[in-house]
UniProtKB/TrEMBL annotation:
The lineage of its organism: Bacteria, Bacillati, Actinomycetota, Actinomycetes, Kitasatosporales. Residues 1-21 are annotated as: Disordered. It comes from Streptomyces lusitanus. Its main location: membrane. The keyword Membrane applies. It is found in: Cell membrane; Membrane. Keywords: Antibiotic resistance, Cell membrane, Membrane, Transmembrane, Transmembrane helix, Transport. This is Transport permease protein. The keyword Lyase does not apply. The chain crosses the membrane at residues 46-65, 85-108, 129-155, 161-183, 195-212, 263-283. It is a multi-pass membrane protein.
Amino acid sequence: MTRTDIPPSVTVTKPAAPPSEGRTWHTVRPYALLWRREMTRLRHNPLRLVMGLVTPLLFLVVLGTGLEAASSTLGKAQLNDYRAYLFPGALVMSVQAPAIAVGISLVWDRRLGMLRQMLVSPFPRSSIVLGLALGGATTGAVYGLALLAVGGIAGVRYTPMLLVVLIELLLVSLLFTSFGLLAAVTIRQVDTFQIVVNLSLMPLMFFSGAMFPPNGLPGWLDTVVKLNPLTYGVDAVRRTLPGPDVLTSEQTRLMLGDWNPPVYAELGVLAALTAAVLGLATYRFSRTQ
């Protein structure tokens, strides 16, 4: 005898996630994973943050105080507060080391075989480069934020304008990270990479107007300073930073002939150069075997 009053079994299926959500997460995931990797490195190595601030602090306190005292003694001071003038350069100096460290880590990843695992992942290679760049830029901004916290020693005022300064430092840090990644995908030896990077960073800092006003220089030096992209980053930070009048005086601001470029134009130069360098690094990385 067959019973016909028993209902057939019903299979309840869970509705699938909308296809658009899956595609969005698949696109964003490599950026998030590589950014979190750099944040994890920073969290597990706090000594790295402390040591990274030693050089810019010495640059600011020792050099700034010594030259300011010497100028006052000689009675030839053209800047009212040289330590305040140095502070924007110290901020830029603080973000360069952690940003370049991303390039060093990529060279080591190639040497240890980690890069091969990245290359065989299902993610686009462009997303790997962009994820590393965002992680390095965020790490550099953290260093800049730590130095901003002690900006009172240079007469910096703690106002909401510091948030704009932090965004500018994030852009400068992204530029440094892009240069580091471009060098990392071009140079395969760790020792060679460090030599090239160190020899490149020192002239960039010295010829950026970080230690002396960018105007009234001899012909060849004036040309080098005006062609240095870091000059525009330092000048933008200096003019945005709330502090003594020396930061915004006519004597210290950058002049191109009779034109004083606005801050947004200087940031535009940095953004365009960052996009170009990052695009070149992505192209070279996509051809990595």
